[in-house]
Amino acid sequence: MINKILRIALKDLRILFADRAAVLMMLAAPLVLTLGMGFVTGSFSDDGNGNSISDIPVTVINNDEGDFGRILANTFAAPELDTLFAVTTGTDLAAAKQAIDDDQAAAVVIIPAGFSDSIMPDPATGAVSDALPVEVYSNPARPISAGVVQSIVADFTQQVTTGVVSGRVLIEQMIAASLIAPDEVPAVAAALGQQLQTSGGSLNLIGQEAPVIRLNSAETTAAQPDTFDPIAFFAPAMALLFLMYTVTRGAQSILTERDEGTMSRILTTPTSVSQVLGGKTFGTFLSGVVQVGLLIVGTAILFQLNWGSPLGVTLLIIFVAAAATGWGMLIAAVARTPGQAASIGTALMLLFAILSGTFFGPSADTPFINILGSITPNKWALDGFVELASGGTVADIVPMLIALTIMAVVLFVIAVIVFSKQWRTSR
Amino acid sequence: MSEPILTTRNLTRKFGDFVAVNDVSFSVLRGEIFSLLGPNGAGKTTTISMLSCLIAPTSGDAAIDGHSINGNPNGVKNAIGVVPQEIALYDTLTARQNLNFWGHMSGMSGKALKTRIEEVLEQVELTDRADDKVEAYSGGMKRRINIAVGLLHKPKLLFMDEPTVGIDPQSRRRILDMVSDLRDQGMTVLYTTHYMEEAEELSDRVGIIDHGKLIALGTQKELTKLVGQQESLRLHLGEGITGESVQELFANVDGVLQSNALDGEVILSVTEAATALPGAVTVANANNIRIRSVDIQEPNLEAVFLHLTGRALRD
Amino acid sequence: MHKILSIAWKETIIRFSSRTELLFFLILPIAFTFILSDGLAGDPSEGTQSIELLVVNVDDSELAQTLVDGIDATSAVRVALVSAETAADQFADDATAVLTIPTGFGAAVNAGEAVTLDLQKEPDNNDATIVEQTVNAVIGSLNQPLAIAQAGVAFAEQTQPFADTAARDTFFVATLDRAQTLLADAPSRFVVTKPDGSISEEASFDVTAHQSAGQLVTWVFIPLLGVAAVFAFERNHGTLRRLLTTPTTKATQLLGIVSGHVGHAIVQMLLLMVFGAVVLQVDWGKSPLGLVIMMLSFGLAGVALGTMLGTLIKTTSQASSVAILLGMAMALLGGCWFPLEIFPPAAQTVARFLPTTWAMEGFSNLLAVNTGIDGVLVPAAVLLGFAVVFFGVGVWRFRYE
To answer: What is the ipTM of this complex?
Structure first.
């Protein structure tokens, strides 16, 4: 009984791994894609910053004679923004714009002549001239980088606006409250303006010295010594992506055996339908275990990955292979031809990938994707692998194992019901 | 006479309204080659499928080696070997790997299996190609391995379902010789075919099946007696003349018992060919029918089938 | 011409004889575009490309909500509301930053007290820097009127002390009120301009438009590579050879197959554009001529690569595996999934050698920049260049069996 199931499973394993195209998809493809993802996310670069923007090329053209233009220009060159921006200070507007067209820069910040003068209220009247806006000439091909430049400029101009408004409000309110007389206005305005102008390069305006809401940012490394290596996410993600390929092959082989008569032939030997299907299922499961196992050992060597608890990793491989096999059996149960099984399987493989965030890295999922993602074995196993790689123990992945078990059981039950309907006429 | 190893009783299988096998009863005796002869679609494969427990009969039963196909399929499966009509092998595995797998499915293992694999490879003369993938084989070689799989566990009864379909004459010859050898070794074979010559050459007894019904059963001698001492005159007609249009003309020729039309030819059942032929030629000349050639055939299974159904075996 | 059409039509029948083909032709691309542009999440500005900030909000005041909404509305950062526990967990794992809004935050601010919010961020991480900048900007805008009112009170007190706390409070409220009004009316002191002359307040990244174009390129490209399978199939079944026994030239055959599949690609692109335009409100209609140029040149480049692959690949199952794998990889590297700008420089350089990159650039230009056909001329020319090279190799290496 068990012997035959094992025989059928081993036969399938042998057939699968003898197929060069299959091996390419099962083992080579995930490795190549992992390399590719590592490449595009910059995981192999020196700074180890992972998937983030740095050295945004920005040109600052300051046509303003006053202090405010200088302060804004200096903001981009501030030491704390050193890695974020690669600043060029220029005067040639045409050249700067050409650089944008050539996709050499993300944005040009153009500070107009008279920018400072447009901010300061007239010393005599306290009146403010029309606002001269700073122009952020942005590269539409780099919307994210341009957005970062824009936020710096926005932050700056917001502070300027605050200063201007606060001066105006103060004077108005003090007159209204009869704290000063109208003829004192020019003197007070001058005092305010002085304060505004000389508040230093950091532009600490009135009130800004003691803001009501203050952000206290602390650089905390938490439990982890360094940032999470994206490869530790992409390696299992790609392995799981192609695990779905393997179980699809399993589904295809059931239908192929049925079409080509080998299934019937097995049934003419003292072997039951349940033994055949059990053997095919077990073969698919074994293929999955072997595939993911090889990939994990392979990536551990190739990318110097530490996968964490060996027991946890082994358990996770076994459980996710079982859950994925469940999907494979469901495909076999609903598809009519091997070709159909291949199409449905490939579609599921890609859909599961997208729903489990396979291509987007560890922290880029939205609630919607999170919910739908939980129907995929990929999501649970990925969570598990990431947990283990960041030092989690077997106890930490128990929820994932339970979820995968439930998935496997439910899918197997559905598949068995469909199968038994299909095979009722025979025996 | 030895006792039967297979006995079917009123075996019937319907697919919806279509009756594929209709009330078929026969026995196969130990040590004989029994052929089921009939055109394509006559119900041969459905019968084999029921006997090998792949599909259940709608009604009726069969006993193989004392086991009922309804009551004890596993007992039946242990006794039989099956060579299916399609080549049911794993293309990307080698012949030896295939045999190894199928041996295990038949309940064999270990050294006994290993030795037996070498024996059957020898038997089908593929020992030197045993480690090539089946996909690299010619059609005839695939057929031989297909047979070898059925022989592995030395079944008491071997089903061979049209084992020579679609191969070249040379390979066919080889397979027929192989079946003869099997009989010499004492194997019991249930052989289905739509080739009259194969049934004639191989069989101890023949069952003729048509439209799901077993219409005749016996040794070749017994069956040909059904058509009496008749001979057949086969007239191949000239271009543009269909058999149907002239069938009636020949029916009235002296010595002609029956006239049957086929495509482009007419087959006349006659008491003696030599006396009937001149009459037939005269009729043809009188009606301006050109006869291109004439075959005279001794009584054979073809004639039996024709006699019973009014149709030729082919197609 | 008649023969070419016959061959093209035969290709169409073969391809769509299986209903599952529709899965790849329309259903998956639409599903992917939808999911990736967060069509179901309700807020299209919230792309998967923005940086996630974990926010622990245990204060139920209006001000706290205003702060959260303000951060979430930015293009660079999106908010994920979590419990303190989850935040600690995720921060330990991989999260970039965590902002904590404590109980009583709103009440304290309204009472004029200074409040400090904690932002935990990863060190040496530019993402974290961007988050900090963004949060500061939002807090800054909340701070403005409050700060002005507080500073006003202080300044006024310097000049002349208030009679009592009531007078002080009255002055505070009046100043706050006035400051809010004036700030709301204050002129903007910066503008964002683009090469096409458009002016806006924000250089936002239109995720939906990007995904509409990116998924279109991805899912049209894969079946075009799949043309390799057509050649493999026909070669294996001897139909190519048989066609040759008819008075049909090699060129006619090739043209028939190619035009059939380019035709499918164009129909597919049109359908996906209609979906993008109708359901996701992506403006595909800026330059119809530009679209036609792009669709043709992209279709030809893709089918040419498929033809070239067809000479290298032996079986249909190999072909479909390679098509999916290569298609996905090239789409990914070509910036169809994430914008190229977030790739490291080396990856951006490699991407220049992929047809998908140029296809994406052409379609993006049509969507983002209002330059008419000017924006597609270079990408289209490069794509046609690819087409010539791939076809050249394909025809040169073409085998009938």
So the answer is: 0.81
